[in-house]
Amino acid sequence: GCGNSALSYDLHELGYTDVTSIDFSPACIAAMRARYARCPGLHWAVMDIRALTFPDASFDVVLEKGTLDVLMVEETDPWHVSPQATASMHRVLAEVSRVLRPGGCFISITFAQPHFRKPHYAQEAFGWSLRHAACGDGDAGAFHYFLYVMRKGQPLDPCDVALGRRLHQPP
């Protein structure tokens, strides 16, 4: 869900001239189309992240910034995610994996710490490797955010494979 973020436009201004953005809100997409009508390389579509209508292997890069966090918003215990939220996250990530080309990259930017998010990403079925980095300015009162990078067609580290398997074990 691109929402009303300027990220797509910022990418366009950096030279990425073919950027497709989706959101489930028709009003949001209409507003973004109107706001950036002068940028023909920006494409907008109303779509549900759980059921992407793009063909298989159609993107070199998929980037999400906080969209997956919405799937966890009603969870009361991040250590014990409900089966419904886990299934929803899996469905979205399977769709991302499906639309990535071999060698493609999925980038996820979130406040979710690795011990909470990596088990969802570390599924062998997605066919990607997994790396992450903490980002932030280092101020004592500042929140860090996390950058996760998955590369389609590269293997998961054995430790990540084990981490992903724990997600589906009973607590």
From TrEMBL:
One of its GO terms (biological process) is methylation. It comes from the Eukaryota. GO terms for molecular function: S-adenosylmethionine-dependent methyltransferase activity. InterPro entries: Lys/N-term_MeTrsfase_sf, Methyltransf_11, SAM-dependent_MTases_sf. Residues 1-107 form the Methyltransferase type domain. Gene3D superfamilies: Vaccinia Virus protein VP39 (3.40.50.150). Keywords: Methyltransferase, Transferase. Pfam families: Methyltransf_11. The keyword GTP-binding does not apply. Belongs to the methyltransferase superfamily. This is EFMT4 methyltransferase. It comes from Cinclus mexicanus (American dipper).
